[in-house]
Amino acid sequence: xxxxxxxxxxxxxxxxxxxxxxxxxxxxxxxxxxxxxxxxxxxxxxxxxxxxxxxxxxxxxxxxxxxxxxxxxxxxxxxxxxxxxxxxxxxxxxxxxxxxxxxxxxxxxxxxxxxxxxxxxxxxxxxxxxxxxxxxxxxxxxxxxxxxxxxxxxxxxxxxxxxxxxxxxxxxxxxxxxxxxxxxxxxxxxxxxxxxxxxxxxxxxxxxxxxxxxxxxxxxxxxxxxxxxxxxxxxxxxxxxxxxxxxxxxxxxxxxxxxxxxxxxxxxxxxxxxxxxxxxxxxxxxxxxxxxxxxxxxxxxxxxxxxxxxxxxxxxxxxxxxxxxxxxxxxxxxxxxxxxxxxxxxxxxxxxx
Length: 353
Known about the structure:
Blueprint: H1 10-13, H2 30-37, E1 45-46, E2 51-52, E3 56-62, E4 65-72, E5 79-84, H3 95-104, E6 109-114, H4 132-146, E7 154-159, H5 161-172, E8 177-183, H6 194-204, H7 206-220, H8 224-232, H9 243-251, H10 254-270, H11 277-282, E9 287-292, H12 300-309, E10 314-318, H13 330-352
Parallel strand pairs: 5-6, 5-7, 7-8, 8-9, 9-10
Antiparallel strand pairs: 1-2, 3-4, 4-6
Helix pairs in contact: 3-13, 4-5, 6-10, 7-10, 8-9
C-alpha cells in the first residue's frame, strides 16, 4: 500500500492502492508549485550547478478535449520525449522527474508530458467518464496532430498504465516512435495481488465508485491548509515539496476520482493476464523496462516472463527502495530520471555506430 493515504478514512485509503505519483507543495511554498499546475510563469530554481530549467504548464485542446501538458522545450532538440503518466493521469505529479530528465539529457531533448482527459483541475468535460481506449486514442491524436512536423525522433516513456498505453502507441505509430521505456509497468492483470483484487471490486461497482469519489470530493472541499496538514501527517511525510499539492488540489475532486476509478475498471477489463509477446519480440530492440523490487503493478514475475519471452529488451530492477509512485520524492524522481537518461544516451550511441 502506498504511504499516501494510510492515515485517512477507510474509503479514501483504498486510493492508496493506485499508482499515484505526486507533487505537492506546502502552503508556505505554494507559489512554485502553483506556477507549474496553474500555468503561471514558473519561478527560477537553482540546480546544484547553474540554473535549472523549469517545466511549463499549458492547457491545450487535443481533439476537442482540454488537456494539461507539462513541457520543456530545448533550443536545438535532437529528439522529443513524450511522457505518459500513470493513473491518475495528473502531469503535475511528474514535474521534478521531467526537470531532472531534461538536465541529465544536457538540454538536447524537448519533453512533453500529456495528461489524461478529465483528470484535470477543472471539470472541462462536465462529468463524462473516459475509458482506457479513449485515453490511448487521445494520446495518439496528440502525437499525430501536434508532433507530426517536429523533424526529430520521438521516444515514448510511460509510467504504470502509461507503459501499456505507450506500448499501444508504439504499435499504432511505429514510423514516428523510435524507442519505448516502461517505468514500473502495468502490462497485465496480476492475479496474485490482493491489492488489485480489492481495487477491481471497488472499480467494478458503480455504487462503491460513486461513494468513494464522493468521500474524496468532500476531502477536497477542506481548506488548503487543512487538507495539506492531513496529508503531511499521514501519508506524505517523506514526499517532495510539490507532491501534496497535486493530491490536495487536483486528485481530491469528485470528477477526477470518478475518472480514476472508471479508467481502472476498463483497465481490468481490457488488460490480459499475459502481454502480446509476439509484438514485443518484434520490437524488442526498441523496448526497455524498469521494474520495482516490490511492486504489485509491475511484479517481478512479469520481469521474469519478459526476460524469457523478449530476451533482447533492456530490463532492469530498481532496488534502491523507491516506490511505484517514484515521483512522490525528489530522490525517486532523480534516480529514475538518471536511469531513463542513461537508456536514451545508450540508444543514441548505438544508433550512431
